Amino acid sequence: MTFASPPYADTGLLAPEWGLSDAAAETGDLAYLQALLDAEAGLTRAQAALGLAPAEAATAVTRAAVRDRFGVRSVASRTREGGNPVIPLVADLTREVGEEYGPYVHRGATSQDIMDTATMLVAARTLGVVLAGLGRTERALAALASEHRDTVMPGRTLTQHAVPTTFGLKAAGWRSLVLDATDRVTRVRAALPVQLGGAAGTLAAFQAYGAADAAALVREYAGQVGLAAPVLPWHALRTPIADLAGCLACTAGALGKFGVDVLTLSRTEIGEVSEGSGGGSSAMPHKANPVRSTLLAAAARRAPQLAATLYGSLAAEDERPAGAWHAEWAPLRDLLRLVGGTAEHAAGLAEGLRVHPAAMRRNLGTTGGLIVSERLAAALAPVLGPARARALLTELARRAHAEGRPLSELLAGQEELRGVDLDDLSNPAHYTGFAESLTDRALERR
């Protein structure tokens, strides 16, 4: 049997949320391998910058730290022996650097320093993909909100028609969630820290090699790899991972809200929106399934469980934990690639979304005018008195359902309402409250 790719390569066959996306490329084994090498090379450069290693060593390690020089499957096959990929990779990198400067590879560090730093690098790179997708989504939703500022549609609560709203306000709400997610991702990405503590978080080995200032060493390392400098080593203080989990789960949920609303509004019997290019069915030629919104909804359901494992790993014993740290790797990578791929789908959904105002107008009449009963109750109270107005509307609503007649027709037959402009009061387009100004206000946010 031959394979177009290695037999154990994860190409996303069962993960259409992220398969073959930019997020997949940033979180794959090759990307992780390069991040590990970047962490090792950055550490040697940091020590050289502080006079703790020859400049030539930094050059040699950096030149050797290229993933194409290493067999990812070979590293993976030896990972089980030590429980993490850093141990076999350090041996390979040391050999690649050569006898003269090989001793400066990984000097003073522990495996978790490199693994955590690499994980932060992978996260930072993948969050860049997430932010790009969120930016595209936000811009498309802003355009929809502006274009449909005055497009009236049924507002729905607990699955039923409530009062009229506008599609502009709905799109502005989706955009607001996307901006909330963007704020969180931006903040977390800027704070992703380098990891450096040595064997038990004391940096003792670096002191033995001549370091006089631990903070200066950590700052230099952070600068070399492009991450933040933490106050303390965080081997067993897993706030950075929890923060990542939170912002990613929030982002998945924010995009999921967009997705599930589109799923509802694109139902055949509602038809108020549709995806720009729906997916086909293996059995029913007539179908154009809302695939992108389906994938957004699926991701929103998966993300909380992945985040829960990461939150559970906050309980990390001793100076370096056994199990809690290891439990983070797979779910964090899954969460990064899931949200990265979903952000790309969300952008495509927002950019291609088709809005159908005629269907919205049609659906406003589904209840025969009952959608404005709240307005009628408020307007008729001064004419009839609150109790009489409510009793009359309750009775006419019952008759409208039973007789299949519009509420406006029944109201017109009431002698006590002669002289009241029932046409205006019954027009759903005249009862959208402050929807237009709320949309304008939401669009002021950048």
What does the secondary structure layout of this molecule look like, with pairings?
Blueprint: H1 22-27, H2 29-49, H3 55-64, H4 72-82, H5 86-97, H6 111-147, E1 152-157, E2 160-166, H7 167-191, H8 204-208, H9 214-225, H10 239-265, E3 273-274, H11 291-312, H12 329-352, E4 354-355, H13 357-364, H14 373-384, H15 386-403, H16 407-412, H17 422-425, H18 435-443
Antiparallel strand pairs: 1-2, 3-4
What would your notes on this structure say?
- The chain is 60% helix and 4% strand.
- It is mostly helical and 446 residues long.
- A hairpin with a 2-residue loop joins strand 1 and strand 2 (160-166).
- It has helices spanning 22-27, 29-49, 55-64, 72-82, 86-97, 111-147, 167-191, 204-208, 214-225, 239-265, 291-312, 329-352, 357-364, 373-384, 386-403, 407-412, 422-425, 435-443, and strands spanning 152-157, 160-166, 273-274, 354-355.
- The longest helix is centred in the N-terminal third of the chain and has 37 residues, at 111-147.
- The strands form two sheets. Strands 1-2 form a two-stranded antiparallel sheet. The chain has a two-stranded antiparallel sheet with strand order 3-4.
- The relative contact order is 0.12.
- The radius of gyration is 30 Å and the shape is elongated.
What characteristics describe this protein?
mainly alpha; two-stranded antiparallel ribbon; 4% strand; two-stranded antiparallel sheet; 446 residues
Quick recap of the structure?
The chain is mainly alpha-helical and 446 residues long. It has helices at 22-27, 29-49, 55-64, 72-82, 86-97, 111-147, 167-191, 204-208, 214-225, 239-265, 291-312, 329-352, 357-364, 373-384, 386-403, 407-412, 422-425, 435-443; strands spanning 152-157, 160-166, 273-274, 354-355.
